[in-house]
Amino acid sequence: MRLLLVEDDNHVAAALSAVLARHGFDVTHARSGEEALRALVPEGDGFGVVLLDLGLPDQDGYEVCGKIRKRTSTPVIMVTARADVRSRIHGLNLGADDYVVKPYDTGELLARIHAVSRRTVHEDAATGGDSDALRLGPLLIQLSTRQVGVDGTVVQLTRKEFDLLALLAQRPGVVFRREQIISEVWRTSWEGTGRTLEVHVASLRAKLRMPALIETVRGVGYRLVTPAA
């Protein structure tokens, strides 16, 4: 898999590139936001994953993430020292698919890279099926086109946000265990994904402006509550 590593620290980039190369990745190193954006044109989809450090010298990392998402659907994993949930949600709202918080374990990073790449392959294979839509009050979910609307207004979701919403919406009122959601959406049983699930639930509630749409069932998981029309 080709991977675009956006990292301004050459020592960090060299060490990480060596690790990734040992695990079969073909790494292209960009030292700035501008360099990363140039690498994504015209062959943005030639990369399997973009690994984006937010501490860049020329542009705000969040701004770069938004620009990348406008140019390509390639999965973006943010690397950030900001551990607060609000910063993570902001990145996801801009189109990032996942994040890792510094300092991170190399095994964690590799697991997240493989998770987003597996999901992308699965989604590409699933496209072209019969058109199908779920309407729940003001919420409309079109499964075949992966579009979501609220009261006729399109809401932009990331891959994982859509997959999570679609999973819950296909069986409204049914409680999905955390382990089941992680297995279905992230296609892994890795326990560290649990915190990511919480962040994505919070992001969905905020984007859809329906804080009561996804109910937390304490100690078990989550369920979708059908909104009033």
TrEMBL record:
It comes from the Bacteria. Residues 131-226 bind DNA. Residues 2-117 form the Response regulatory domain. Residues 131-226 form the OmpR/PhoB-type domain. The modification 4-aspartylphosphate is found at residue 53. Gene3D superfamilies: 3.40.50.2300, 6.10.250.690, Winged helix-like DNA-binding domain superfamily/Winged helix DNA-binding domain. InterPro entries: CheY-like_superfamily (IPR011006), OmpR/PhoB-type_DNA-bd (IPR001867), Sig_transdc_resp-reg_receiver (IPR001789), WalR-like (IPR039420), WH-like_DNA-bd_sf (IPR036388). Pfam families: Response_reg, Trans_reg_C. Keywords: DNA-binding, Phosphoprotein, Transcription, Transcription regulation. This is Sensory transduction protein RegX3. The lineage of its organism: Bacteria, Bacillati, Actinomycetota, Actinomycetes, Kitasatosporales.
